[in-house]
Amino acid sequence: MDRKTYQKYLHSEVWKEKKEKYYSSKLPKQCYICNSRENLEIHHRSYKRVGGSEYLRDLLPLCRHHHRLIHQYLKVGKKLGLTRLNTWNVAKKFRKRLKKNLGPPVEAWEQSLSALETWKKTRSAKEQEP
Questions:
Q1: What is the mean pLDDT of each run of 10 residues along the chain (130 residues)?
Q2: CA-CA to 105 of 20 to 30 Å: which in 10, 60, 68, 94?
Q3: DSSP state of 57
Q4: Cα–Cα distances in Å, from 26 out to 21, 39, 85, 124?
Q5: pTM score, whole prediction
Q6: What is the C-alpha to C-alpha distance for residues 71 and 80, in angstroms, rounded to an integer?
Q7: Which of 91, 106, 86 has its CA nearest to residue 32?
Q8: Residues contacting 9, CB < 8 A, separation 6+
């Protein structure tokens, strides 16, 4: 699904009904990362079934802050050529850092981006070796 079609879907009645169904289910109603119940947004864990056929378990509640943070992280990772990054793994990584008191997600994000850039440079250097 291209970006334009996806944006249209996010403003559709089908998506509105899917979110209402999620909120009326027994699934968690707090941010997966920080457990906040404020400014919740529903994010797709996977884009395989987007368009109305997604399962409720394909959806992940995130506060607005962490939702934006995950999208930024994935966007930078994509620019670095890291095609195996996905929302679910990034969310789990941020949540794990918070539980271990390793700093707020913003620090985790910045440290992770630095690690991604270092990894990318190392990978490029190894590929150029004879």
A1: 85 92 93 91 84 87 88 76 71 74 56 70 71
A2: 10
A3: G
A4: 10, 19, 28, 46
A5: 0.69
A6: 14
A7: 91
A8: 1, 15, 50, 51, 52
